[in-house]
């Protein structure tokens, strides 16, 4: 099999890249190790930055998002039993975010790709990337029990944190920056209308809690739990009781309970692999970087990477100049490190570490107080949350 761009992985990064290339008249083949149902139902991110929304619309993938997605103009910070709303449009010159689940973004992109895009092979596992520094890199893969090879001009590893593409970088040419956290998120989906019309990020001495949503009738909630916790350790009642305590306020706000349809634990880590390019192999999305989920940057970073790659390749084909491809890694990393910083700040602002002292707790409250009382501090949060420019730093 032969193509211009071999794409490993059909998560948001790989699927959007295939769509962008198709719109630009560049052919690609997507290899995805899992089946379609798995990819379409894997419960993950839920918040799209303004720039991500704009890109999906421009790629012709925004129709259902515009019908069913929920535009959000702010978030609530909850601490010390108080509530503080951050008004995004007022602080950022009109920007907002969209609540539209990653599962739905993937469903929309898969439908478009299968209808009028290049090949998208499910249950096709890439085994390696070979000859990344040659003219024609190859991806051997196994599809429905048969082995084959995809020959490409370029390979883009969109195969997530556990993929194979990153392994093709020689150790001497790679640098990894990482940090782990002593806590994780227990996430639930519940068939109950969200108890607030915007997201609530709560800091509590017992730990962080987040109220989010998937639709007007489905709530998505997260609870900080110790790293290594198993979802089965928490009964449904215990989850609701703990959420209620962490969201407590001095007014009459209440948390509505409903039947749980899903319960799972997400570990938290920060990770960056530099550089993001080796010869004709490029990494995009979680294959190159991970952020802790506080602040909802993971999916949005993946979108920035593939937009940057698609633009660079179109530029190379139109002008013959490799300049933008050569700049790919540095361009992406500027934005990635801003998102790493923001995700780290939000995480340490809102979670309580097992070894946190009373001093640490007071500092968190002082940082929150500063955001609630200084327009400059609040604007900093609003700008980062609604998103830095897709192809550069903020
Ligand atoms: P992925 O979505 O991981 O896609 C990679 C794809 O590559 C997968 O479909 C995988 O099956 C495929 N693949 C892997 N290896 C191979 C191979 N060898 N051959 C072929 N295909 C392969 N972000 C948030 O903002 N908020 C959240 O609440 C949130 N929750 C998360 C929960 C979990 C459990 C995880 C893992 C991530 C979460 N994220 C969250 C992050 C966000 O979902 C990711 O940043 C986003 O999915 C990145 O997209 P991607 O396309 O780069 O990678
Ligand atoms: C969601 C996830 C996040 O990490 C976040 O900061 C906000 C919302 C969500 O899954 O809805």
Automatic annotation (TrEMBL):
It comes from the Bacteria. Its EC number is 1.14.13.2. One of its GO terms (molecular function) is FAD binding. It is an enzyme of class 1 (oxidoreductase). The keyword Ligase does not apply. It holds the Pfam family FAD_binding_3. Keywords: FAD, Flavoprotein, Monooxygenase, Oxidoreductase. Residues 2-343 form the FAD-binding domain. This is 4-hydroxybenzoate 3-monooxygenase. It comes from Streptomyces cellostaticus. The lineage of its organism: Bacteria, Bacillati, Actinomycetota, Actinomycetes, Kitasatosporales.
């Amino acid at each position: 099999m032969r193509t211009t761009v071999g794409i490993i992985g059909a998560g948001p990064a790989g699927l959007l890249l295939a769509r962008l290339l198709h719109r630009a008249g560049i052919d690609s083949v997507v290899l995805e190790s899992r089946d379609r149902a798995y990819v379409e139902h894997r419960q993950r991110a839920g918040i799209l930055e303004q720039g991500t929304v704009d890109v999906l619309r421009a790629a012709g993938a925004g129709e259902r998002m515009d019908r069913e997605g929920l535009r959000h103009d702010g978030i609530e910070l909850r601490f010390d039993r108080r509530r503080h709303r951050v008004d995004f449009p007022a602080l950022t010159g009109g920007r907002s975010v969209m609540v539209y689940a990653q599962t739905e973004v993937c469903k929309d992109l898969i439908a478009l790709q299968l209808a009028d895009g290049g090949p998208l092979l499910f249950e096709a596992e890439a085994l390696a990337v070979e000859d990344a520094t040659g003219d024609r890199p190859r991806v051997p893969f196994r599809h429905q029990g048969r082995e084959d090879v995809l020959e490409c001009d370029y390979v883009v590893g969109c195969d997530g944190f556990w993929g194979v593409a990153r392994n093709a970088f020689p150790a001497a040419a790679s640098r990894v920056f990482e940090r782990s956290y002593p806590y994780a998120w227990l996430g639930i989906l519940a068939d109950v209308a969200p108890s607030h019309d915007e997201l609530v990020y709560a800091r509590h001495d017992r730990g962080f809690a987040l109220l989010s949503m998937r639709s007007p009738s489905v709530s998505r909630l997260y609870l900080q739990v110790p790293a290594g916790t198993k979802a089965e350790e928490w009964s449904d009642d215990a989850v609701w009781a703990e959420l209620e305590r962490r969201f407590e306020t001095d007014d009459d706000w209440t948390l509505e309970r409903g039947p749980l349809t899903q319960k799972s634990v997400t570990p938290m880590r920060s990770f960056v692999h530099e550089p993001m390019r080796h010869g004709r192999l490029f990494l995009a999305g979680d294959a190159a970087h991970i952020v802790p989920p506080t602040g909802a940057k993971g999916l949005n970073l993946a979108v920035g990477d593939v937009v940057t790659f698609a633009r660079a390749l179109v530029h190379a084909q139109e002008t013959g100049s490799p300049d933008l491809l050569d700049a790919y890694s540095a361009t992406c990393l500027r934005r990635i490190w801003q998102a790493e910083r923001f995700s780290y700040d939000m995480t340490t602002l809102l979670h309580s570490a097992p070894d946190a002292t009373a001093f640490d707790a007071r500092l968190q409250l002082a940082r929150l107080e500063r955001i609630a009382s200084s327009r400059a501090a609040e604007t900093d949060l609003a700008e980062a949350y609604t998103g830095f420019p897709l192809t550069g730093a903020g």
